[in-house]
Amino acid sequence: MTLEEADSATQEKIVSYVAASTRAEDETQFAIPTGLVVAGPSIASHGPFFVRLGQRIKSDTNSTYVVLTSGECPNLKTLLKNLIKKITSRVEDDDDDDVSRPMPSSRKGPKLLDFDLGHVQEWRKKNHVQSIVVAIQDSEAFDTALLIDFVDLV
Predict the structure, then answer these.
(1) How many domains are there within the chain?
(2) Which stretches within the chain are classed as H helix?
(3) Running DSSP on this structure, what letter comes out for residue 128?
(4) Fewer C-beta within 10 Å: the chain N or C terminus?
(5) CA–CA dist 93, 69 (Å, integer)
(6) Of 151, 152, 153, whose CA–CA distance to 121 is shortest?
(7) Using one digit for the tens of pLDDT, what is the confidence trace for 10-22?
(8) Which domain holds residue 105?
(9) Rounded Cα distance, 8 and 60, in Å
(10) 3-state class of 138 per DSSP?
């Protein structure tokens, strides 16, 4: 049995969850549908797992998928900048460190700062994406306070 086959059942459940949460979008929500999947102790298998998961989510749902790692998110401002740049540029290769892309500007009101989640809202409306899936590849390495602040913001 290959690793891909072993991960298939888990990935299917995650994709089903993402698809179900996008259908519930029409209902009034007071929270963002959130799930936690811990990839297990084998750090070597995390990267390939998240790549395959992203491919399934992109192909089976109308969602954008990005991966964040603790190394690229030392603080909340940098986390938000990287998240926004990955989402709005539709980075296919999560190892791509090209974060020098200019941010879209706000056409209504003052220009948004490069760490303002308003960029994601504008991009999502423009591209008609139902949901944005953010995977945190190494959640155990993130500062707990940083994750709490991030979850509170989104």
Answers:
(1) 1
(2) 3-23, 43-60, 76-88, 118-127, 144-153
(3) T
(4) N
(5) 13
(6) 153
(7) 888 888 888 887 6
(8) 3-153
(9) 13
(10) coil
